[in-house]
Amino acid sequence: MLKRFENLLVILVTILLLSPQYASAMHIMEGFLPIKWSIFWGALTLPFLLIGIKSIQKNVNLNPKLKMLLALAGAFAFVLSALKLPSVTGSCSHPTGVGLGAILFGPTAMTVLGSIVLLFQALLLAHGGITTLGANAFSMAIVGPFVAFGIYKLLNKFNSPKWLSVFLAASLGNLLTYITTSVQLALAFPSPTGGFEFSLLKFMSVFALTQIPLAISEGLLTVLIFNFLTTYNFNELKELNVLNNEKTSPISEEA
Q1: DSSP 25
Q2: Which residues pair with 191 in a beta bridge?
């Protein structure tokens, strides 16, 4: 089991190392937001971080074996959110990878993982920044995970196919992240003529050109990883209440 996880992590890291990187490719970059908005988004993010830390501690204390799944969710988000395509001045388009962790551990746990990912990217890859960490975390590590988690749970209540629930959760979590980023930029830089509404439409229209196909791609990739975990980590997913309806693992059925 450990070997399979190691192989999967190697594949994810290889994708990161072989992917093209752009100097302008980052989240909302360092110093781009006015200080008042940096403080505002940071203060708004802090309570979710505190709740998320308690959530992670609870899960790990109940089952220390979940640390490996937690690490996988963090690595998945790190690799995907490091694949950048320049979109508009001051930001970029990229997958987020937060849907998987939100489905597995809940949205607030992914707030912690996503914030750690953003911090490491700001320090090691020059993607994003420290002053804009709160804004980037709010869009990618709060809004994205909460949307993904809500979509997944809602579709499960209607007994939707598991693949469809995972696909829509990851895809819509990605899209809502960028809608939130558009709102953040429009609030900070309203148009002199059209105000907030005009700026919002401008940012959203430019993001949509690259973000919609990226969201679809992220949804498909998340389904593949989720199917892998369902096959080889069935018991852990049952313990996390991710697979409430399934009674036996695919391996058991094949046996």
Answers
A1: -
A2: 195
Quick check: is 2 in a domain? no
Scan for tokens 């969710």, then name that residue.
73
What would the DSSP string read from start to end of 109-153? HHHHHHHHHHHHIIIII--S-STTHHHHHIIIIIIHHHHHHHHHH
Looking at the 3D structure of the chain, how many domains does it have? 1
d(CA 12, CA 149): 23
Give me the pLDDT at residue 15, please. 46
pTM of the model: 0.83
Overall average pLDDT of the 143-163 stretch: 94
Q: How far is Cα 10 from Cα 23, in angstroms, rounded to an integer?
A: 25
Confidence (pLDDT) at 86? 58
Between CA 192 and CA 25 the distance in angstroms is 27
Range of the domain at 47: 26-243
Q: What is the mean pLDDT of residues 179-186?
A: 90
154-174 mean pLDDT:
94
Instruction: State the pairing for strand pair 85-86/92-93.
Output: antiparallel
Strand partners, 195: 191
Residue 13 belongs to some domain of the structure: no
